[in-house]
Write a structure and sequence with these properties.
The protein is an alpha+beta fold. Helix content is 56%, strand content 12%. It contains 39 helices and 15 strands.
């Protein structure tokens, strides 16, 4: 037979094609491995695979997937049949040559399949080049599983098309036999399928496959050879099993906890336009109360529609479009709501659609009288849907409030709310605000609208207005869903008392793990306010970076920061790059991931891509950039240039700006050349900080207290004990409530003052109590000094080694006035390690550390102090090794 042409390459993107799928599987592959051993079995399987691929090429087959056998795609059924016959023949020849007993079973079916090419980056990570989905694949799999060893089974459509073209089999035709075995019912397939066999006389089984728990043949009842008792039992089972299947609240699709659904557009058959927007939003609100079912956000749906090259404002999410969205985003089910007038009653129906087949798996409906009944009916439909999807009835009742209570019974108010939500996801914040305010005018008890108003104000940077909106929302908690009430509470705490907000964020994120506002908020606050880089913070940040999040870029950026702080630089850059490819413009921390590895040229070019706001317009936006500009210069042994970067940033501020003290402290963190002038500047900065604190509001007071605590630490470090004592006296006690990071810094500053007073053991104890994996980088700097002063050089060595190997933490901690100094200390740690090693008698380690320092800062001799320290290590006789 002449070789058939290879199947056409699928078009870019997702395509629906009529194709033949063939599944083959080796029987008893596990037993084969046990019998032959891993190596011999692997070699035999390799020869089998080579043979199968050669035969597939001969007949125009395309390999889609590979396990114990193959999933292959052909243009025509006759090609698949020709392959199957040659494959079985090749298997017999392989067995003869290898003295083996391999046997395979084959299933063939024809139909529409959805085909798409995976992206090159996914293929590089292990994905297959091409993906094929559709009902054809499970039916071919059922046929294969039904087959006997050595048997090739076909569906009726595959048989009809292949048998008609059997002349193309050429010389094989005279040995080929076709058999029909009647209709079989397969588990999970709604309609019975006629089963046929094709094989060669004398080698193929050519007999009906046996029944199993997953497939049985349909035959007339009167032909069943059974006694009256057995007949009665069978009859009972025939009644009981369908009844049980009908009554059992189990999903008909493989839906599991935290799986996702797409909510399609309402099919309004009543002619009442008030239903159009209102009921879609009401169904979404009802489903979003679930901790079991996740609803794909509207903004993500719009984004996917754009990727389908359609206009999201003009595209209805119907059965076909909704199914394609679900497949693209890995969503398990599509829900299509309908409202109709039936016999004078208003009927609400919701269909659950399998997106791969576009068939209705099941539907739920409820009737009511008049428009005022629709929310009650929708509540009932929602409850039944969630149970059918697998959620426990008790959980549905416990986690949900009635829709009329958490929304509004006024459909005009609900429609205004819906239009406000639609404007919000389009970024039209002014329109969104107006629609939500209109909803509240119609129904002042519609408190969920205040939650959306608060979100609009947060997006617009109006924190005070947002706080008032969230406080208005919780005026009556019974009018909010549980999730909305939790979100309002945590936003109020974040705006009023950030230090107390983190536990609340944790509860929200754990209760609703796929609620992106909760997961993103927790991860950000955990890093920004608590300096956490732990697995939990990273894991929750990665949830926010999910492709189902309509705006994953802030979470992708945060994941990059966290991985930088953990020293996972390559993974950090992958996350930064993903976020930037989606439009994220800030590259400061991306550049820091290079600087932490001392790749300064890459760090500088990456930082240059970050936008620089005019200092008078938004100086806060430039803080991290200015800090890293200075830190890169310190890393390049240009300390004077680093001071100039900070001085220029301070000079560019408007008069009296709150960042002025911050930049002054950054400059003071880098030792001055004139020690006396440096101490005087520290004392003056302390007095200025105390003055600012006395008139600051709660938000500004936290940042001023952080700067005062850093000044106290620097004053103790640099020989200005009076200034340190004055700063510490102005600060709250260590056990006072307040922002977490200033509280941590106060404790370090007090311990450093204790060390300066000559009480090294007490300083060690105080600093050791702070070690909880979220301690500030400076804690290890102070602890190294305390161990050394306490006569414990080996413990001090461990601390300086930590400093040298955790440069990512020095860069990735939340920006503070110590960021540049921490980066500097990460290199000076090598020199300190050499000095401590000499003190502890570790000569070889001293030399290694000194070499590392000179490699990092080859121009160290330009600094007189560093030159003298290195010369002291080089010229002095090393102490004897104990």
């Amino acid at each position: 037979m002449s070789a058939s042409p290879a199947p056409a390459e699928p078009e870019a993107g997702t395509s629906a094609l009529l194709r033949t799928l063939l599944l083959c599987d080796l029987v008893g592959s596990t037993a084969l491995v046990e019998k032959l051993g891993d190596r011999a079995a692997a070699e035999l399987i390799r020869k089998h695979d080579r043979m199968a691929r050669t035969v597939a090429d001969r007949h125009g087959g395309r390999e889609i997937d590979k396990t114990d056998g193959f999933l292959m795609m052909f243009d025509r059924p006759i090609q698949a049949v020709a392959f199957a016959l040659d494959y079985q023949r090749g298997l017999r020849q392989l067995n003869a040559a290898e003295q083996s007993s391999l046997a395979a079973r084959v299933g063939i079916h024809v139909g529409d399949v959805v085909v798409w090419d995976n992206a090159p980056e996914d293929i590089a990570k292990g994905a297959k080049p091409i993906e094929v989905e559709g009902l054809v694949k499970p039916i071919a799999s059922r046929l294969m599983n039904l087959a006997l060893p050595g048997q090739v089974l076909l569906s009726n459509i595959a048989y009809a098309l292949a048998h008609r073209a059997q002349g193309e089999l050429g010389v094989q035709l005279e040995r080929v036999r076709w058999r029909t075995y009647g209709r079989y019912r397969f588990k999970g397939i709604p309609d019975p399928i006629p089963v046929f066999e094709v094989g060669e006389e004398g080698t193929a089984p050519l007999k009906a496959p046996p029944w199993s728990g997953k497939a049985h043949r349909e035959i007339p009842f009167w032909r069943r050879p059974a006694t009256v008792v057995i007949e009665a039992l069978v009859l009972a089972l025939l009644v009981a099993i369908p009844l049980y299947t009908f009554l059992k609240p189990a999903p008909a699709i493989a839906f599991a906890n935290r799986d996702w659904v797409v909510v399609g557009n309402l099919n309004n058959l009543t002619g009442e336009t008030v239903f159009d927007e209102a009921l879609e939003s009401a169904l979404r609100i009802a489903l979003e109360q679930s901790r079991y079912v996740n609803v794909l956000p509207d903004l993500k749906v719009r984004d996917t529609v754009k990727r389908m090259e359609r206009d999201p404002d003009k595209t209805r999410i119907d059965r076909a479009i909704g199914s394609e969205i679900a497949i693209r985003d890995g969503v398990k089910a599509l829900i299509l709501p309908t409202v109709a007038e039936v016999g004078g009653r208003v009927r609400i129906t919701a269909e659950v659609i399998d997106p791969h087949t576009q068939t209705t798996v099941y539907s739920e409906s409820a009737d009511g009288v008049g428009a005022e009944s629709v929310l009650t009916s929708l509540d009932l439909v929602n409850q039944r849907l969630r149970v059918r999807l697998g959620e426990a009835l008790a959980t549905v009742s416990q986690d949900s409030q009635p829709l009329q209570q958490v929304t509004t019974s006024n459909l005009d108010a609900l429609r205004a709310y819906s239009l406000g939500m639609r404007s919000y996801v389009k970024g039209e914040f002014d329109n969104s605000l107006e629609f939500h305010q209109q909803a509240l005018k119609i129904d002042p008890q519609f408190l969920s609208a205040w939650i959306r108003i608060g979100a609009v104000y947060i997006s617009a940077g109006r924190a005070r207005d947002a706080l008032q909106a969230f406080e208005a929302a919780i005026a009556d908690r019974t009018r909010l869903s549980i999730r909305d009430a939790m979100y309002a509470d945590v936003m109020i705490l974040t705006l009023k008392s950030p230090d107390a907000a983190l536990p609340k964020w944790a509860v929200l994120a754990e209760s609703y793990p796929d609620y992106f506002a909760g997961s993103g908020g927790y991860a950000y606050v955990s890093w920004k306010d608590a300096n956490r880089f732990d697995d939990k913070t990273l894991g929750i940040a990665e949830i926010g970076a999910s492709n189902r999040n309509p705006n994953p870029t802030p979470s992708l950026h945060l994941v990059g920061i966290l991985r930088t702080g953990r020293g996972e630089y390559e993974k950090a850059r992958q996350s930064f790059t993903s976020g930037e490819s989606m439009g994220f413009v800030r590259t400061e921390y991306h550049s820091a991931s290079y600087a932490a590895e001392r790749k300064l040229e890459l760090a500088r070019t990456t930082l240059a891509r970050s936008p620089l706001d005019a200092a008078t317009a938004n100086p806060v936006a430039n803080v991290t950039r200015n800090l890293f500009e200075a830190a890169f210069r310190v890393d390049a042994e240009r300390r004077s240039d680093a001071r100039k970067v900070i001085a220029d940033a301070r000079a560019a501020l408007p008069p009296g700006h709150g960042l002025s003290l911050f930049y002054e402290v950054v400059g003071l963190s880098l030792d001055g050349d004139d020690a006396t002038a440096h101490r005087e500047a520290l004392a003056a900065a302390v007095k200025e900080g105390i003055r600012l604190r006395s008139t600051a509001n709660d938000v500004d007071k936290a940042s001023i207290e952080m700067n005062l605590a850093i000044l106290a630490y620097l004053a103790s470090r640099d020989g200005a004990p009076a200034a340190a004592a004055e700063a510490l006296a102005a600060l709250p006690s260590d056990d006072a409530e307040g922002a977490i990071l200033p509280r941590k810094m106060r404790a370090v500053a007090r311990a450093r003052a204790t060390l300066a007073a000559g009480h090294a053991p007490d300083a060690v104890l105080a600093l050791e109590r702070l070690l909880d994996a979220s301690e500030l980088y400076v804690t290890h700097i102070a602890l190294a000094d305390a161990y050394a002063a306490a006569g414990r050089p080996n413990e001090a060595l461990k601390e300086v080694q930590w400093l040298a190997t955790h440069r990512g933490r020095a860069y990735a901690e939340p920006p503070s006035a110590l960021t540049v100094s921490n980066v500097e200390q990460s290199t000076l740690a090598f020199l300190r390690e050499a000095e401590l090693s000499r003190e502890a008698g570790h000569t070889a380690r001293m030399k290694t550390a000194l070499d590392a320092f000179r490699a990092a800062w080859p121009k160290y001799a330009d600094d007189p102090v560093l030159r003298r320290r290195v010369e002291a290590l080089q010229s002095a006789d090393p102490p004897p090794v104990p």
